Amino acid sequence: MKLGINLLCLAGHIDESHLPQIERIAEIGYDHVEIPVMRGDPDHYAWLGERLAGFGLGRAQTSIVPDPDANPLSEDASVRQRGLDHLSWIQDCAEALGSETIGGPFHAPIGHFTGAGPTKAEIERDVAAHHTMAERAGRNGYRLALEHLNRFETYFLNTMEQARAYADAVDHPAFGIMYDTFHANIEEQDQPRAIEHLGPRLGVLHLSENDRGVVGRGQIDFAAVCKAVKATGFDGHVVIEAFGAGLPELAAATRVWRPLFPDFETLFTESHDFVRATWEAA
């Protein structure tokens, strides 16, 4: 298991001002960090990748589809092309960063709804786009891990039944699913059973508390989650996710308006120690 932390707890865009906190993350004993890639250019992420490597940290990435006007699901060819261009930009940045994984909901704009579930045509369009992404990822030595979200953030991919079927449709060894305990806590009746159903399609494990605060302080049974994940044979990237107070890029969709942890040192150390111990015990 490679333990990381999602840096959305710090900011929506990581720059030089965040390096002291990232160095502290390395000192605590994390194996990697998951970088939010929402804006910027490949040159910035090449620079950041070098700095992270200097701290001895591996790199992972999380990205989204930020705008309905660049939606890869759209039936409008010009809108869809802008969406495909955005997916290509995501991979440009990942390759510059030296990322081992691209995770996140890069399937549809967060907080955008049509009033119904996904149509067959929308699924087919996204499957084609993600298969193309997976082919490029496979050639360049990294993996995709598409994230399901709860029904209040997207209509496209909510449950592990949907996620497994979608990954089977993409059908590429470089494509999997990012399982997130926060979203599954809303959508699944039984998290271990959901993880078992996802099985070999599990690409990245996001450990996020029910309030998106310090992992281990809330209601989610992480011992059962880790036991179920290990039973699948998964031994890859495990990422702690907690959100800071008011991320401009995501606040409208995630409704994060208040501090969810007392300070970064508590978040980094307590979550690290809890997950290491819980994983080992499982």
From TrEMBL:
One term of GO molecular function:
isomerase activity
What keywords are annotated for this sequence in UniProt?
Isomerase
UniProt key word Isomerase: yes
Note the Pfam families from the entry: AP_endonuc_2
The Xylose isomerase-like TIM barrel domain is annotated at 23-248
Matching entries from PANTHER family are given as: HYDROXYPYRUVATE ISOMERASE (PTHR12110), INOSOSE DEHYDRATASE (PTHR12110:SF41)
- For this entry, the protein name equals Sugar phosphate isomerase/epimerase
Species whose genome carries this gene: Maritimibacter dapengensis
